[in-house]
Design brief:
about 550 residues, alpha/beta, Rossmann fold, 60s Ribosomal Protein L30, Chain: A, 22 strands, binds nicotinamide-adenine-dinucleotide, binds 3-phosphoglyceric acid, PGDH_ASB_dom, amino-acid biosynthesis, NAD(P)-bd_dom_sf, D-isomer_DH_CS1
Length: about 550
């Protein structure tokens, strides 16, 4: 699945290469870093892409005002300034540039650790104030032989560990997803937090700011640390509680803090930053020419790759789309959506469980995008999610919306497809309703609806604004009525309908089902006419 991207708005200071790459690829770019919140709300509907750093707060109201938004790019790492939940529900891809500023942030962290150990900030201030005598009180400590605790052993945490080991520091750390064997590869002993606190001479945090990490280091943690412990935060303000740092410095429990990030940026109150024991920088971790060039180029190239259907690298909320980018997957995405629409049209009611089974080698990795595509068709008019908002249902938001309404989805795969097909997708709901389909020559085809198999498969084409009428026919003992199809076709034609296709299923239990598709929407009159000939007729708008 790929999409058109016509215009991108950049609202933070980003290297010019971002603009150049996007423009070279035919995307119009407007860079305006001076927009007020109100101006942003007015401007955003004009764009289908937005690129930011950490300054622009991409809040729910901005995302909801962005009626054409398809993608939000973060030229950097942290996405805490973007309301990712709201973006996901709106079907908007959010991507960052993981790794682009890792080295700069790691170097900045190491710089703060070194500077804190020798009171560089205080020495510098003393010189500027012509207070040479300060040298008597600015006794430092070597880093050699000291223990550095690293909370968050991801990209930056690892680079910090490797660099500080060259000063002779012992590195220990904690991360819920990095196992001890992995941290051992960069000579860092994994430990639970309670074991870490009393051992650390320095603590540096490198986690995202999430509920589990907010105020991770607080009064209680300081109280079990070594007296004089020094803390460093180049991750996000609030991971180390600012009020607790202040109290710990005042009591002498904390010997110094290196802070690049703050709970509010810019800080509403500079008291903490002004404390002599605090070495503060205004969120400079990624502010190097190298990192800024890298993240600017990366976010622009990532946008271009999505537009070309090449890659979703950096996307943090589009898991279902990962295997849906290739041209071969497109008819399957269409089929999935159509199956969902057919199910919604024929099987209204409470659906709590949906099982999607993919068959055949080509669909081995297709389960997640096919179930997302089916959900996008199934839920498009669902009152449970506000109904009728079909334009916004896609592979990004439909899994999240299904979860929100308590619809459980299970994917399974089987290597061999039922003969005579090579690849098939079938979906079955908790009430037993099932349907399946395949693709051929780029067309989406129905194989089976509710146990009724078609030998000549009805097309549910993507580009045809067609409507499907399912009708059931009693064939009384299997003899059938050879005149039925011409009779139905004739009746529909007399009702003024332009029929695109008319297909009847293989007989099952004395029943046949027919599917008619139309190039223009059928009228109520068409249904009435049909009902005089067949047992039941249901209209499904695709
Ligand atoms: N100051 C700056 O300019 C600057 C620059 C770049 C990145 N950052 C910030 O640094 C942080 C880390 O970036 P990264 O690229 O290393 O990210 P990363 O995703 O590579 O690593 C983060 C690690 O934190 C771990 N983690 C999550 N919850 C945790 C918890 N409760 N306890 C311990 N660890 C936990 C994750 O498992 C992950 O391994 C992010 O918040 C990012 O925004 C700041
Ligand atoms: O998470 C990040 O990438 C850093 O905090 C950098 O933020 P910035 O792009 O605003 O400098």
């Amino acid at each position: 699945m790929s999409f058109q991207l016509q215009s991108v708005l950049i609202t933070d200071e980003i290297d010019t290469q971002c603009v150049e790459i996007l423009q070279k690829n035919g995307i119009q770019v407007v860079k305006n870093t001076k927009l007020t919140k109100e101006q942003l709300l007015t401007e955003i509907p004009k764009y289908d892409g937005l690129v930011v750093r950490s300054a622009t707060k991409v809040t729910a109201d901005v995302i909801n005002a962005g009626t054409n938004l398809k993608i939000i790019g973060r030229a950097g790492t942290g996405v805490d300034n973007i309301d990712c939940d709201v973006a996901t529900k709106r079907g908007i891809i959010v991507m960052n540039t993981p790794g682009g500023n890792t080295l700069s942030a790691a170097e900045h962290t190491c710089t703060l650790i070194c500077a804190l150990s020798r009171h560089i900030h205080r020495g510098d201030r003393a010189m500027k104030e012509e207070k040479w005598s300060e040298r008597k009180v600015l006794m430092g400590n070597e880093l050699y032989g000291k223990t550095l605790a690293i909370i968050g052993l991801g990209r930056i945490g690892k680079e910090v560990a490797l660099r500080m080991q060259s000063f002779g520091m012992t590195t220990i750390g904690y991360d819920p997803i990095i196992p001890a064997e992995v941290s051992a590869e960069f000579n860092t002993e994994w430990m639970p937090l309670e074991k870490i606190w009393p051992l650390a001479d320095y603590i540096t945090v490198h986690t995202p700011l999430i509920p589990q990490t907010r105020n991770l280091i607080n009064d209680q943690v300081f109280s079990v640390c070594k007296k004089g412990v020094k803390v460093v935060n180049v991750a996000r303000g609030g991971i180390i509680e600012e009020a607790a740092i202040k109290r710990a410095i005042e009591s002498g429990q904390c010997g110094g803090a290196g802070l690049d990030v703050f709970e509010s940026e810019p800080p509403k109150d500079f008291t903490l930053a002004k404390m002599p024991q605090v070495l503060a920088t205004p969120h400079l971790g990624a502010s190097t020419t190298e990192a800024q060039k890298r993240v600017a180029v990366e976010i622009a190239e990532q946008f271009v790759d999505v537009v070309r259907g090449k890659s979703l690298f950096g996307a943090i909320n589009a898991h279902a789309m990962t295997n849906a980018l290739s041209p071969e997957s497109r008819p399957w995405v269409v089929l999935g959506r159509k199956l969902g629409q057919v199910a919604a049209g024929l099987n209204p009611g409470n659906v709590e469980n949906m099982q999607v089974t993919t068959y055949g080698p080509s669909l081995k990795q297709a389960g997640s995008y096919l179930s997302a595509a089916i959900l996008s068709g199934l839920l498009q008019n669902s009152p449970a999610i506000g109904g009728g908002d079909s334009a916004t249902l896609n592979l990004v938001n439909s899994p999240a919306l299904a979860k929100q309404i308590g619809l459980n989805v299970k994917n399974t795969h089987e290597e061999a497809a039922p003969a005579p097909y090579t690849n098939v997708v079938s979906v079955i709901f908790n009430n037993g309703f099932r349907l399946s389909g395949t693709t051929s020559g780029g067309n989406a085809l129905l194989i089976e609806v509710q146990g009724q198999q078609f030998s000549l498969l009805p097309t549910v084409a993507a580009d045809m604004k067609n409507t499907l009428v399912k009708f059931s026919i009693t064939t009384s003992g299997g003899t059938g009525n050879p005149q039925l199809l011409p009779t139905v076709a004739g009746a529909l034609a007399s009702a003024g309908m332009c029929v695109s296709s008319l297909t009847v299923s293989v007989e099952n239990d004395g029943q046949k089902w027919g599917v008619a598709t139309f190039a223009t929407p059928p009228t109520e009159k068409c249904l009435e006419v049909l009902k005089t000939i067949v047992n039941a007729a249901v209209l499904v708008t695709l």
